[in-house]
Design a protein that fits this description.
GO biological process, one term: negative regulation of fatty acid biosynthetic process
Pfam families: PASTA (PF03793), Pkinase (PF00069)
Keywords: ATP-binding, Kinase, Membrane, Nucleotide-binding, Serine/threonine-protein kinase, Transferase, Transmembrane, Transmembrane helix
Protein name: non-specific serine/threonine protein kinase
Shape: elongated
Strand order of the largest sheet: 1-2-3-4-6-5
Largest sheet: 6 strands, antiparallel
Catalytic activity: L-threonyl-[protein] + ATP = O-phospho-L-threonyl-[protein] + ADP + H(+); L-seryl-[protein] + ATP = O-phospho-L-seryl-[protein] + ADP + H(+)
Amino acid sequence: MIGRLIDGRYQVRSRIARGGMATVYLATDLRLERRVAIKIMHGHLADDDTFKTRFVQEARSAARLAHPNVVNVFDQGQDSDMAYMVMEYLPGITLRDLLKDYGKLTPEQTVDIVTAVLGGLAAAHKAGIVHRDLKPENVLLADDGRIKLGDFGLARAASANTATGQALLGTIAYLSPELVTRGVADARSDIYALGIMMYEMLTGEQPFVGEAPMQIAYQHANDSVPAPSLKVPGLPRELDELVLWASARDPEDRPRDAGAMLEQLLAVTAGMPGAVDPNATAATTVLPGPLAQTMVLGGGALANGVDDFAGSDFGGSEAETQILGARHRTGPVDAAEADSAVLLRGKASTRKRRGYWLFAAIVLLAGLAAGTGWYFGSGPGSRASVPDVSGQSVDVATAAIAQAGLQPADATASCTHPSIKPDLVASTDPAIGTALPRGSTVTLCVSTGPAIIGVPAVVGLPEADARAELAPLFTLAEASDVRFTDEQPAGSVIAVLDADGNPVAETAYERSTMSLVVSAGPVPNVAGMGVDEATETLTQAGLEVETTDPVFDSNVPDGAVISASPQGDGPVRPGSTIVLTVSKGPDLIAIPDVVGMSLQDAIQTLKDAGFEVSHNFPEALIVLAKAVSTDPPAGELLERGSSVFVKAQVTF
């Protein structure tokens, strides 16, 4: 299928996924030059009108919906005996993949996904469409953050809510009680399935499990879904209530449709613990701690008085000088002068110390400025390494390059890559890890998938040589298909097959899967051998042996092999069965004695014994003749089918 052009428009590039009804491929729409996902119904279902109807119904149902959370359907048609549907291509994973990787999700993640699913489901319900197969496998999480609902294969009009025969086509783990008991589905059945999905996202497991599908169906019909917080304590009460509301056994107790549930979800989650009101003011402001006393007092304690304060490094201010001067002027004049001199010397010393500190601070700041300028101007800080953005979407890669201090180019380039999916970044120019001046431009090279390359001609080469030529270009199966053949010597390559078992063409996608067919040499020729010898020869060659009942053969001695044939159709491989046809020699019988019989009776007797008969008498007079002898004579052993001559004459 890969490489096939469908309907003259869609070029199939690679397989994305395979389901029970169809296979999804990545293709290129040659008319609009865009990548699409093309869903092709399995060939063995093409003659089943029921499956064909479901396939066409899926396309029509999804095409009626135009919503950002529903996978868009672009086209649907028939190419030869192949029914197909063209959808938008969303590189990413499903919700099932996410649950497998993480077990359970946080309440915030659950709310985000359920909000998106309800948006798409509300659009479907508004259009009168019931999905009927809601499950994590049908919720697509794109690499760019989009969440979409797909696979409307079981969708029906909301008015056609009575199903017969196919009521249980949806996955049993998400079937509503009314579908199990009465085969009836409406919009509230989709809500039930979503409630089960919410429980699974919050707890990491489904509420009802069992060894057989009927056990699970019985629980859906007779048991109530427990609150998720019983399994995971601490979950918000609002989410418990939403899950129990959506998964109520009685449809009348559930939301009437996805729109009603979406409104309630948005309303209750706004009041959940941890929800942020953008207009609210922070309730608590973190203030710096109190200053240490040593910083405030310069080595003394506040209770030590003004004298200690004046003796500190903070004691040189003008206000302090006035206070101290006023206190000392209460004494004698000489004492006042002496105090004034001491005070002046103290002020000079303080200014000197301040000058030293100021100079040191200026030098330090200048050094820091120079160092910073060098670091970001010509030192290590002036350069940035191109981050590893391979395998990321263009938007994510662009943000990472900008965050690294580089400038993403306005346009992207295209390049092939054997393993990175199309539309994801394959490489950069300059290469990942290159150190560049900050602000340099980096161009993203976006993958177009694997390149189409030539396949080396390896038929006829020894297996080891063929693998050496193909392994650097393609993915080879470890085991080769060994077959008996006289086309090539033992150990040589007979053919190269693709993943579907077909011979490869002259070109193929790089790293595509291939396998080798290798010769085991011809089947040993055992014709003419005795049975034991032939059996041993074939067994040593790795073949099984069976024999048929012996048959007469005049050319092969009794007990020797006449022929050896493979059992069944298809290639002969080690372990295949060879059937031996064994001779029991020629079929010899005695010539009966017909002398004295009428020629007519003699002829008939010899023919009945198994011989061809000739005679010497005219046919017109044969009734008058009698046999007088035979050649060979009576009693001699002769091989069945041999000719016997009867000599006759007229007797009276």
